[in-house]
């Protein structure tokens, strides 16, 4: 049976500016939900509201129909990758895996090129390695849902591909909401897609709808990406 | 339904994370404790109310300030299931557990 996280009636204002207006979004385990939108449209804000660390004017967040006030306080429910590095820089890699109850050896056996020493501190890694490890920890820590805010930033194309496979793999157990300005990769891995525009959210069913939304520059068309993903 | 063993495991993990968060701001807290104890040692028991209030207020200010300048790191602890209130209250209690016995020792 699939777990479902539904959020509706989300209204968020900063001063007199309404950032999010009557938002409805649904995330299901086993599926990757993509969220696109221009800068400043409220994608990160929406993720923080879903995670429970930001309180909007109104909201209703339900998991399998049960209302949840602060999802992040429910153990084993949700994890959130912010768009910045959140891991304490002085923490050793091996300790990070212990904190999240994950096996470091499994990680190293698959991604030895990412982190070569368990006793290295997090700050000693490159920006890409830091991003990869953070995303891995939050994807595979026990939980039903993961919110990923720009997981592909700082990653090289080959590592982005590995990351996509990793997200795909984690989505077998989890419901994943992903937002990233590497829209081609986001489109490729998403099972369903929403676009956030002028405070409103709407599902995107076809490449024409995405092109018409004005998210992509005129020189780029999403048709090729949609074709390759289908 | 969580078993008693799992609940205890969760509590200990939470205490561990609070300890980690405490480590990140222990230097200013311990300097403040040292300053308070030194004042008490020099000027005697009449300074107890002033020293205690100074310590309580400064600890609260340090905690609130750390929430502000370590905002990004807070998400690490949120992902581990700890709230801001738990972290703040935990650090305050840990700090007092160091400060009060030291003060009593000097009495």
Automatic annotation (TrEMBL), chain A:
Lineage: superkingdom: Bacteria
rRNA-binding among the record's keywords? no
Membrane-crossing residues?
Answer: none
Give a Pfam family name. ABC_tran
On whether ATP-binding is a keyword of this UniProt record, the answer is yes
Keyword annotations: ATP-binding, Nucleotide-binding, Transport
Q: Which residue range or ranges hold the ABC transporter domain?
A: 5-223
What GO molecular-function term can you cite, just one?
Answer: ATP hydrolysis activity
Q: Where, if anywhere, are coiled coils annotated?
A: none
Per its record, how is this protein called by name?
ABC transporter domain-containing protein
From TrEMBL, chain B:
Q: Which organism is it from?
A: Pedobacter antarcticus
Q: Which residues cross the membrane?
A: 21-42, 48-67, 87-106
Q: What does the UniProt keyword field contain?
A: Membrane, Transmembrane, Transmembrane helix
Highest taxon of the source? Bacteria
Q: What is the protein's given name? A: Uncharacterized protein
């Amino acid at each position: 049976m699939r777990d479902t996280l539904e959020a509706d009636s989300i209204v968020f204002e900063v001063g007199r500016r309404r950032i999010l207006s009557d938002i409805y979004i649904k995330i299901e385990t086993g599926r990757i939900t993509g969220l696109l939108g221009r800068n400043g449209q409220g994608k990160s804000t929406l993720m923080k509201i879903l995670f429970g660390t930001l309180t909007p004017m109104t909201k209703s967040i339900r998991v399998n129909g049960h209302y949840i006030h602060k999802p992040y306080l429910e153990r084993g429910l949700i994890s959130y990758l912010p768009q910045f590095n959140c891991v304490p820089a002085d923490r050793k890699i091996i300790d990070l895996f212990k904190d999240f109850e994950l096996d470091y050896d499994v990680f190293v056996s698959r991604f030895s090129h990412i982190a070569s020493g368990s006793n290295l501190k997090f700050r000693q890694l490159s920006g890409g390695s830091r991003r990869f490890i953070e995303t891995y920890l939050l994807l595979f820590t026990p939980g039903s849902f993961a919110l990923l805010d720009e997981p592909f930033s700082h990653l090289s194309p080959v590592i982005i591909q590995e990351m996509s496979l990793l997200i795909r793999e984690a989505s077998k157990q989890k419901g994943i909401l992903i937002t990233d300005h590497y829209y081609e990769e986001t489109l490729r891995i998403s099972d369903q897609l929403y676009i956030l525009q002028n405070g409103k959210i709407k599902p995107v069913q076809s490449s024409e709808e995405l092109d018409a939304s004005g998210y992509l520059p005129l020189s780029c068309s999403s048709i090729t990406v949609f074709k390759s993903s289908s | 339904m969580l078993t008693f063993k799992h609940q205890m495991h969760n509590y200990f993990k939470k205490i561990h994370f609070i300890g980690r968060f405490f480590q990140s701001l222990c230097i200013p807290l311990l300097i403040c404790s040292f300053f308070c104890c030194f004042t008490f040692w020099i000027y005697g028991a009449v300074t107890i109310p002033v020293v205690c209030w100074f310590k309580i207020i400064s600890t609260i200010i340090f905690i609130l300030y750390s929430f502000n300048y370590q905002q990004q790191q807070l998400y690490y602890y949120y992902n581990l299931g700890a709230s801001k209130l738990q972290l703040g209250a935990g650090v305050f209690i840990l700090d007092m557990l160091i400060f009060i016995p030291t003060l009593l020792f000097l009495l």
